[in-house]
Amino acid sequence: MTPGDAGPRWLPAVNDCLARIPQAVRALGVGEALERTALARALDSVRAELSANGGGYGSRADVEREVLERWASEAAQLARAALPAVVNATGVVIHTNLGRAPLAPEAIAAAATAGGRYTPLEFDLDRGERGSRYTHASGLLKLLTGSDDAIVVNNNAAALLLAVDTLAAGGEVVVSRGELIEIGGGFRIHEIAAKSGARLVEVGATNKTHAKDYEEAITGGSVKAILKVHRSNFAQSGFVAEMDLGALCRMAAPRGIPVIFDQGTGILEGSEATRGEPTIRAAIEAGAAIVCASGDKLLGGPQAGIICGRADAIASVKRNPLLRALRVDKMTLAALEATLRLWLSDPGRVPARAMVETDPAVLKRRAEALLGMLGERARAQCRVAPHAGRAGGGTLPEVELTGWALRVDPAGRSAAELESALRAAEPPIIARVADDAVWIDVRAFLPGDDEIVASRLDSLLAGTLRV
Ligand SMILES: *Cc1c(COP(=O)(O)O)cnc(C)c1O
User: What are the tens digits of pLDDT across the range 424-453?
Assistant: First the structure.
């Protein structure tokens, strides 16, 4: 046989394939359009092989069998959800790549109700007339932060854009060179601020910004606001100086210049792990006109941007036409409101907070229990070991959370191979490779994850020994 014989002419026709659709494809129930897309992909890949070198196929029947097989696997890939549940075994709680904070059951239920039913999003139930979507979470936020008023938008980046645009459009906004930070995913404070209608004026040096730097900048008369950004994802040490928020607000107040504070983390209440980090309430008390924060970092809610502040400043934000483009949807508002209620009633039930605060002794017992669930052969390749967790999401950059993990030294294969096998598992398990071992940290496990990890790990590790 020459490659010419086994060329693309051996490829079955689309209609012949459709007449013989494998049960494995039908059973997926993806619909005809996706079935055809999967078939086209299977035919394309086999055609490419046939054109290149005959593909090593012995007969037309072999080619057809291969097409049907690839069809099934392409269809299975198209049937897979884009956002399936994964197990976070990294020990990083607010893992931005894994979707940041997992919601509390109360928040999930609230979002499901708002999403699946009609809800008075912009309707005043008492008066029977049109209401505002921006009132829902604001009462709780006022209570939790001590601010006059609050409003929720799409995310913190949106909150910042809106705050700067509202208070400083057509004028200047002053910011320290030490605070022109990048948050990750290409988000840079000064680039966001530049998209507003305000001109950014940088003052001070990277490591030091003094009162006189701000003073010189704000005497000109065209400065409409000062922006102070919390360095939530890195720390500066050594020869450094910055002006604290309270002092900055006291300097700006007599000139009538409002201070915007980008707090970022969304921390509502201090704790052992978050010691030294500013809360939203502290920033309001220090005199900031507007404080911006994320909903899905240490606040533990859905993706959202929280804007708290003085009544006049929030009223101006509400009048800004940009608000319409940055607005938040009903499921987010419902989930956020439920999360804020937990902060008021039982903060320990906010999952992100609980995961950051878990007692190391509890984590050790959980790791030991996980080890105990494994069969003998798998257990021989694992041991419980200390492992530092992180708050993550660009928060608490210097805090190493004392924790525990299962350290796996797989027999007969590399740590990288085991890590990728865990990632390919159903559901995927995301672990970490370090020191030639795979680390499975239990800190960010959700209920049920222990059993899932034990069973997948057991079959992967027992399988290793069998070969
Ligand atoms: C995280 C963070 C942001 C960005 O928040 P998103 O909700 O991701 O848009 C902005 N500023 C600070 C200080 C942050 O920590």
Answer: 999 999 999 999 999 999 999 999 999 999
